[in-house]
Design a protein that fits this description.
By secondary structure, the chain is an alpha+beta fold. Helix content is 42%, strand content 17%. The protein has 14 helices and ten strands. Strands 6-7-1-10 form a four-stranded mixed sheet. The protein has a four-stranded antiparallel sheet with strand order 5-4-8-9.
């Protein structure tokens, strides 16, 4: 085994070990946000197992079948267990995409009451599932498959239309990564077309103009998920409407340091909550705005808990981020220390949000070197290097054998 592969394996195993104490009775969603990834994966694994056991006795697809797999994928993804996340997404996506293949919104509108519909996700959630799976394929060097999934994310995003009945092609983070993949595959014309499409919807045009000048030829990319993303809550008379909410967190700017040298700031690639507000198939932009004034009286609603007695469908993939940021540069091959510094809207540094990652490999001759991060408090001190985490599932045991 070469040294870079060995370092990557050890780093991956250590990433799922939380520092000190225990998560106690913390629920799985909070466990993810507090860095207790092994606990979260264990809990979501139990939910997924219950679904599988139930389905052997009952109908082929339970109405909530995909949700535990999406949450398991998020826990695995953030804990560095990409193979586990891949397996979970492969369970969820066939169910979610049956809606697209069967006529999209028209079929969705014909089936029973909102809270009894099979969960297949709104377009932004199906886009995200394809995008995350595409990232795993890209990370593993499977660029043909990654490109197909990034394009599938864009197809899912086109499920909803604006009032002029024009498809909204603004899932910009998928366009940017598709552009990079096209470039790696040698299709530079297609890569430039993708970047041009993304530019239409990028907020900071000046920064994006500079970004796209070097992005396609850079050999190192950092993708950063920020905040706690969109989740749906029932509101209005009879709880028949949906309010999309989020926790954007304090981070508004991120600087990337490599081997103690500042290389630049990450570009805001997409606002996921905006996607949810504008592209929710079951309600959409106009419905959200029409009921905007009726949702002000909502008090504490726990994320992820289905509202009892609700006539609307408040189920959602609540572990999505609020937004994506991206950074790219060219650095020498080898192992590097990458540091993320975060700042609030006034430009003040947020020291508890600083992250430092050691032994990040950049492989010579590979343009697809990718580091995937997520902002959060105290991630810099989150992991022990004392002992390896026990593997929790058969899937993980199998993957460790592959890594060895």
């Amino acid at each position: 085994m070469n040294i870079q592969k060995a370092v990557s394996i050890v780093t991956l195993l250590l990433m799922i070990v939380p520092v000190g104490g225990c998560a106690g009775k913390m629920n799985a969603y909070d466990a993810v946000h507090n860095g207790f990834y092994s606990k979260a994966m264990h809990e979501f694994n139990k939910d997924a197992y219950k679904q599988e056991k139930y389905l052997k006795k009952k109908n082929k697809y339970d109405k909530d079948y995909a949700l535990p797999y999406l949450h398991l994928a998020s826990a695995g993804f953030e804990g560095g267990a990409y193979s586990l996340a891949e397996t979970a997404l492969m369970h969820a996506l066939p169910v979610m995409q049956r809606m697209e293949e069967s006529g999209g919104q028209n079929l969705f509108a014909l089936v029973t009451t909102e809270d009894q519909r099979q969960y297949k996700g709104d377009p932004y959630e199906r886009s995200a599932a394809n995008f995350y799976l595409g990232l795993i394929r890209f990370y593993n060097g499977e660029h043909d498959r990654a490109l197909a999934l990034f394009r599938r994310a864009l197809v899912s995003d086109m499920d909803t239309k604006n009032k002029e009945e024009e498809a909204l092609e603004d899932y910009t983070v998928a366009q940017i990564m598709a552009a990079k993949t096209y470039a790696i595959l040698g299709e530079m014309d297609n890569a430039k077309v993708m970047l041009d499409r993304a530019e239409e919807y990028i907020e900071d045009k000046v920064a994006f103009t500079e970004f796209k000048e070097h992005f396609l030829t850079d050999n190192f990319t950092v993708l950063i998920a920020n905040g706690i993303g969109p989740f749906k809550m029932s509101c209005g008379a009879g709880k028949a409407a949906i309010k999309v909410d989020c926790d954007s967190g304090p981070v508004r700017k991120m600087d990337i340091y490599i081997d103690e040298k500042r290389y630049g700031s990450a570009l805001k690639a997409m606002d996921v909550t905006e996607q949810a507000e504008q592209h929710t198939a079951s309600f959409g932009r106009r419905s959200v705005q029409a009921f905007k004034g009726t949702c002000n009286q909502i008090t504490s609603v726990a994320m992820g808990l289905k509202l009892m007695g609700s006539k609307s469908d408040s189920r959602s993939w609540i572990l999505l981020p609020n937004g994506f940021y991206i950074f790219s540069t060219t650095i020498d091959p080898g192992l590097h220390t990458v540091m993320l510094k975060c700042f609030d809207k006034k430009g003040k540094e947020l020291p508890r949000y600083e992250q430092r990652w050691f032994y990040i490999p950049v492989v010579e001759g590979k343009e697809g070197n990718l580091l995937i991060l997520r902002t959060g408090i105290d991630k810099c001190n989150q992991y022990k290097k004392i002992k390896r985490q026990r593997v929790l599932t058969k899937v993980q045991r199998r993957d460790v054998k592959k890594w060895k």
